[in-house]
From TrEMBL, chain A:
InterPro entries cross-referenced by the UniProt entry: ATP_synth_F1_ATPase_gsu, ATP_synth_F1_gsu, ATP_synth_F1_gsu_CS
Protein name according to UniProt: ATP synthase gamma chain
Subunit structure of this chain's protein: F-type ATPases have 2 components, CF(1) - the catalytic core - and CF(0) - the membrane proton channel. CF(1) has five subunits: alpha(3), beta(3), gamma(1), delta(1), epsilon(1). CF(0) has three main subunits: a, b and c.
Location relative to the cell: Cell membrane; Membrane
Origin species: Candidatus Uhrbacteria bacterium CG_4_9_14_3_um_filter_41_35
Function as written in the Swiss-Prot or TrEMBL entry: Produces ATP from ADP in the presence of a proton gradient across the membrane. The gamma chain is believed to be important in regulating ATPase activity and the flow of protons through the CF(0) complex.
GO CC, alphabetical: plasma membrane; proton-transporting ATP synthase complex
Matches recorded under PANTHER family: ATP SYNTHASE GAMMA CHAIN, ATP SYNTHASE SUBUNIT GAMMA, MITOCHONDRIAL
GO biological process: proton motive force-driven plasma membrane ATP synthesis
Automatic annotation (TrEMBL), chain B:
Recorded name of the encoding gene: atpC
GO molecular function: ATP binding; proton-transporting ATP synthase activity, rotational mechanism
Organism per entry: Candidatus Uhrbacteria bacterium CG_4_9_14_3_um_filter_41_35
Location in the cell: Cell membrane; Endomembrane system
Top-rank taxon: Bacteria
Membrane topology: Peripheral membrane protein
General function of this protein: Produces ATP from ADP in the presence of a proton gradient across the membrane.
Coiled-coil parts of chain: 84-133
Gene Ontology CC annotation, any one: endomembrane system
Protein name: ATP synthase epsilon chain
HAMAP family: ATP_synth_epsil_bac
Family annotation (InterPro entries): ATP_synth_F1_dsu/esu, ATP_synth_F1_dsu/esu_N, ATPsynth_dsu/esu_N
Length: 293, 139
């Protein structure tokens, strides 16, 4: 009886400590998430203004726009997948969802090489024997624009050397702190998305004055398009990081709640045992006293 | 005098957003001065100092490569890879970075073109930062 109470007491203590840790992790994840959501908002104007500039170039050039980053590669077999996961676990179903999405996309694409950002994705793909040509780690805690510049230049370079027919990003879309979606989207060629956006915009702003370009529209396009690829990857990285932290925050909140429930259950049982012990002792004493009389 | 509404944007944040009288900036075709009612133009930037004046007060920014877009009705948008106000720059840090960039250019001189171009672009950016930071100190 006494031993049992001792074991229970030890468990109460250890569950209590675990709860402290999960609570702290929840708060850390919440503050990181808030910061990254702020960064995402700050990054938006650049992307929007780049699109505006590209639209202007399209207008100036009329229909005859061509750039290797806009064209699909005709005779390439392979595709490239860029997968965003986290470096660490304890983030609920965050990693497993996005990896599942990636694997289904990969089986759809056929022959695939992958670039991973985040250690979890690299491990998962290696287990499935998918060739990972590069993997990067340590981005999600403090996402910086300079982090993704080498990633973007690697991708652009590979695409321009006509090795891949398409480049697909698989990441987790941040909808709210409670809801995130694993999605896949085509990064390259940029054309498909751009052509539709462009046809909308020309209708709307056909009366706008045309720009002059220095040195010429082609050079401007040449310098904007790779930047756009960088910006798109940067935004996906931020979204993925925000999703990771909010998924971790939710997972940790659930763990904290579960630990709380378990604690009150354990305390109840402990008190019952303690009370039973006391009652028994009293019964023993009083029956002992009765025997003496 | 009518003003220009200027936005300086980098991928990470909006660095400057205000109205100014004139903008002096380095482009690939040379230095240009933008005043209100400038004709719409899109031009590629070179790393360098960008000087904004507003009622005689000058502000300088160190910008690296990017582009400047002058829209109708005196709106100007600068999309730069990096841009810093002079207040944000620290001379000591920059001098160190400049030295490193110079060393890298010398190292890359013998290797292939791409590496040299990268190193040279890097040096150009640090030089621009240096110039802007020095200005702040002498003020």
């Amino acid at each position: 009886m006494a031993a049992n109470a001792k074991i229970l007491k030890r468990r109460i203590k250890s569950v209590g400590n675990t709860r402290k840790i999960t609570k702290a992790m929840e708060m850390v994840a919440a503050s990181k998430m808030r910061r990254i959501v702020g960064l995402t908002l700050k990054a938006r104007p650049y992307a929007e203004l780049s699109w505006d500039a590209i639209k202007a170039v399209f207008q100036a050039l009329g229909g005859g726009v061509s750039h290797p980053l806009l064209e699909p590669v005709e005779n390439a077999e392979k595709s490239l997948v860029l997968l965003f996961t986290s470096d660490r676990g304890l983030a609920g179903s965050f990693n497993s969802n996005v990896i599942k999405k990636a694997l289904s996309k990969i089986s759809e694409l056929g022959q695939v090489d992958a670039i991973t950002i985040g250690g979890r994705g690299a491990l998962a793909l290696a287990r499935k024997k998918i060739s990972v040509i590069a993997s990067f780690e340590g981005f999600a805690n403090e996402p910086k624009y300079s982090d993704i510049v080498p990633v973007a230049s690697l991708i652009t370079e590979k695409y321009l050397s006509k090795e891949y027919k398409t480049v697909v990003i698989v990441y987790t879309e941040f909808i709210s702190a409670l809801k995130q979606n694993a999605v896949s989207t085509e990064l390259l060629p940029l054309g498909r998305d751009l052509v539709t956006k462009n046809s909308e915009s020309t209708e709307k702003n056909s009366d706008k004055a045309l720009y002059e370009f220095e040195p010429n529209p082609e050079r401007v396009l040449d310098s904007i398009l790779p930047k756009l690829v960088e910006t798109m990857i940067y935004q996906k990285m931020l979204e993925s990081a925000a999703s990771e932290h909010s998924a971790r925050m939710m997972a940790m909140r659930n763990a904290t709640d579960a630990a709380g429930d378990m604690l009150s259950d354990l305390k109840f049982t402990y008190n019952q045992i303690r009370q039973a012990g006391i009652t028994q002792e009293i019964a023993e004493i009083s029956s002992g006293a009765a025997a003496v009389e | 005098m009518s003003k220009i509404s200027l936005k300086v944007v980098t991928p990470e944040r909006i660095v400057f957003e205000d109205s100014v009288d004139s903008i002096l900036v380095n482009t690939e075709m040379g230095e240009i001065m933008v005043l209100a009612h400038h004709t719409p133009i899109v031009s590629l930037l070179r790393a360098g100092e960008m000087i904004l004046s507003d009622n005689g007060n000058e502000t300088s920014l160190a910008v690296s490569t990017g582009m400047i877009e002058v829209r109708e009705n005196s709106q100007v948008i600068v999309l730069a890879d990096t841009a810093e106000r002079s207040e944000e720059l620290e001379l000591e840090v920059i001098e160190e970075a400049k030295k490193q960039a110079q060393a890298r250019v010398e190292e890359a001189e013998n290797s292939h073109n791409e590496e040299f171009a990268l190193a040279a672009a890097n040096l150009e950016r640090e030089l621009a930062r240096h110039k802007v930071a020095l200005k702040k100190r002498h003020r």
